[in-house]
Structures are given as structure tokens and as C-alpha cells.
Write a structure and sequence with these properties.
By secondary structure, this protein is an alpha/beta fold. The protein contains 5 helices and 5 strands; from the N terminus they run H-H-H-E-H-E-E-H-E-E. It has a 5-stranded mixed beta sheet, with helices on one face. It is elongated and about 90 Å long. Helix 2 packs antiparallel against helix 3. The protein has 2 domains: 61 residues, no CATH class; 87 residues, Alpha-Beta Plaits.
Length: 171
């Protein structure tokens, strides 16, 4: 019988070798794909470029790609002063709507009214009428409000102004 020290080097099993290779490939793939580019692509431009075939279609492909780039919707710049805000207090804190109205005005918005809200709202919310979602998002960002919702016509919310209903102090 052989002595244990005479057996020689033991090679790792194939499973261990495959695991090491897989981890190395995953690391390389991670480093190679984490560039600064956005993960989003313009699908319409890709489809337009992939659809035509043949040498005559290459000019059409370039024109279609440029047309797709021109059709990208431009983000509208929201001008705070162009939007009115109605602030409601849904708490027992006296004067909260008035104090927050001052913050809203200081941020550049136009406050139309401040009053008490009689109803139940689960969290401080910015409600927006149709077509004013971008303005509501900006107001929520300005005030640190996490919840925005479409205005509820049944709840007597303004059909033209943003409605801010407070359920507590703002941070």
C-alpha cells in the first residue's frame, strides 16, 4: 500500500473548474457591459433601419432613421408660475395649509387658495388634472411629496389647478 504522501497532487474536480471559468466569464461580461451609456434604445430607429433591404434601400434606411430621431417627443419645460396650486390641510394642525402655501409660493408656483380638506387621504398627495402630470411631478419634487395621482372629479377637485392635500408636516 502507498503512503499518503506518495499519492501526488490531486486535481480539482471538473465541477470546480467549470465554476471558476463561469465566474470569470461573468466578471468579464459585467465589466464589459457596465459602460456609461443608457440601457434604453430607440426601438423605432432600429426597426426603421432593419426593415429595408438591398442597395437602393440603404438611402431610405438613413432617411427613416433621421425621421425617427426627429419624431422623438421633446420634453416640455414646466414653468412653475404658469400653474396654480390649491393647498388643503387634511390634519388637525392649525395653519398648515397657510405655511405650506408660503413654501409653494417661494418655490415659484402660484397658490390659488389654501383651505381645509374634509375627507380621507392616506398620504400627502399632489393631484393633477388632465394634461398636468409633468407639473404635478415637479411640484411633488419641489416639496418632497412622494405620492401623485390624477385628480378625482367626484371629490370636487379643481379641473384646472394642481391640488395638494396635506396629511402631515412636510420635511
Amino acid at each position: 500500500m502507498r503512503d499518503r504522501s506518495e499519492r501526488g497532487a490531486v486535481l480539482p474536480s471538473p465541477v470546480v473548474l467549470l465554476t471558476v471559468v463561469a465566474v470569470a466569464l461573468a466578471a468579464i461580461a459585467f465589466v464589459a457591459t457596465r459602460g456609461g451609456e443608457s440601457a434604453e434604445r430607440d426601438v423605432s430607429a432600429t426597426k426603421a433601419a432593419a426593415t429595408p433591404s438591398g442597395s437602393a434601400a440603404s438611402g431610405t434606411s438613413e432617411a427613416a432613421t433621421e425621421t425617427a430621431k426627429q419624431r422623438k417627443p421633446k420634453k416640455k419645460v414646466v414653468k412653475r408660475a404658469d400653474h396654480t396650486v390649491v393647498v388643503f390641510n387634511n390634519t388637525s394642525i392649525t395653519g398648515l395649509a397657510g405655511r405650506v402655501s408660503e413654501k409653494v409660493t417661494a418655490a415659484g408656483w402660484t397658490v390659488a387658495a389654501a383651505d381645509n380638506w374634509y375627507g380621507t387621504v392616506p398620504a400627502t398627495t399632489v393631484y393633477y388634472p388632465a394634461g398636468r402630470k409633468a407639473a404635478a411631478q415637479l411640484l411633488a419634487l419641489d416639496l418632497g411629496v412622494a405620492r401623485i395621482m390624477p385628480a378625482d372629479a367626484d371629490a370636487d377637485m379643481s379641473p384646472t389647478s394642481l391640488t395638494l392635500i396635506l396629511t402631515g408636516e412636510l420635511d
